[in-house]
Amino acid sequence: MKIAIFNDNQLGIVVDKHVVDVTNVVDWDIHHPHESLVQLMEHFDSLKDKLAKAAQEGKKYNIEEAAFQAPVPSPSKVWAAPVNYKKHQEEMNKQFNNAPRTIEELALFLKAPSSVSGPSDSILLPFKDRRTDHEAELGFVIGKKAKNVQYSEAKDYIFGYFALLDISIRGNEERTWRKSFDTFTPIGPWIVTADEIHDPNNLSLKLWVNDELRQDGSTKHLIYDCYKCLEVASTHSTLYPGDIIATGTPEGVGPIQDGDIVRIQVESVGEFSVNVKLAE
């Protein structure tokens, strides 16, 4: 099932080329969409059939005309995976000589939850004269409280998946600072529930800047796959429903600038495009 938040924080189910308004089918508060999402995830098993039926009968909106919001509006944490593809390490060393280690030594890092934005929002560049790069990633949302989760059980804690952009300023500052500006974590266009993704660790991942294909990878090349990322994140930090994990980016990372259009596509999940602008 593809679960979306769209227009005025309405709850939608995406079917083919339409998003169906199911806001009134469940206990959904448009003024508190994140809290409503957490409640929906908690009761999803009992609501699934009801939502599926409503998706066939409710008011439909053309996908192209809907304004999709971040499908996870206000996570308490965003854990992100650094240098989680070997070829990305190689390209960073070639350009900057600054990626001597991979995730196996670096572990995860935190991004500010306030950096999350939606597929209808623009990426706002805070500096005109600093190199700022795109990083295409698979992201997922935690569906239930998780602490010290073993790898073999990790999939049971993932509610669903979405495309994610990890926007990154290059420089000597800590990763958290360089990646936590407002609009630096666009996600979307919706959540695809985990039961519809046969193997999240074997999905193609592509990114274009304007019409140029920059990144063309696959999650099968992850060093720490989705389940390992969750295991590591939950080891010393309690994960709560609605928390996000970003799994890292493959090779092909490059700069973006004012006026660009960035498009990300994740197999079996979806795609979205965002404009790039200088922050005012």
TrEMBL record:
Keywords noted in UniProt: Metal-binding
All copies of domain Fumarylacetoacetase-like C-terminal, residue ranges: 77-276
Coiled coil: none
The keyword Metal-binding belongs to this UniProt entry's keyword annotation: yes
Any Pfam family the entry gives: FAA_hydrolase
UniProt key word DNA repair: no
Family: Belongs to the FAH family.
Stated name of the protein: 2-keto-4-pentenoate hydratase/2-oxohepta-3-ene-1,7-dioic acid hydratase in catechol pathway
Lineage: Bacteria, Bacillati, Bacillota, Bacilli, Bacillales
